[in-house]
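Support request from a user on the community tier.

User writes: "When I paste my structure tokens into the form, the page sometimes reloads and wipes my input. The last time it worked, I copied everything first. Here is what I submitted, just in case something in the input itself triggers the reload:"
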């Protein structure tokens, strides 16, 4: 897994942005922020942390805060296995 950057405060706390949940697996909530950048990506949060992963061109960690390396590997595998589903949800949300 390639790390691009680390970040600080929670992105999930941004005011005024809709964040529809597109998937829940175990403790992880996968969601998008509406009106955000156009490159396909998904945000993930759980009690202990949050992260942002790019969906294209490959599954790639953009940033994270609070997750362990083990959590990040698990999240990466979930995203990689369900990438088509997440990409389809992205298209429905942003093109619909």
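"...and here is what came back when it finally went through:"
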């Amino acid at each position: 897994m390639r790390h691009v950057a680390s970040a600080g405060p929670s992105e999930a706390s941004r005011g005024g942005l809709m964040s529809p949940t597109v998937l829940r697996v175990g403790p992880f909530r996968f969601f998008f922020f509406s009106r955000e950048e156009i490159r396909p990506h998904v945000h993930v949060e759980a009690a202990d942390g949050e992260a942002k992963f790019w969906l294209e061109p490959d599954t790639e960690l953009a940033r994270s805060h609070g997750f362990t390396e083990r959590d990040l590997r698990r999240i990466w595998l979930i995203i990689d296995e369900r990438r088509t589903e997440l990409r389809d949800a992205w298209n429905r949300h942003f093109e619909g």
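Agent notes: The reload is a front-end session timeout and is unrelated to the input. Strands lie at 21-25, 28-31, 41-46, 49-54, 60-65. Confidence is low (pLDDT under 50) at residues 1-16. Escalated to web team.
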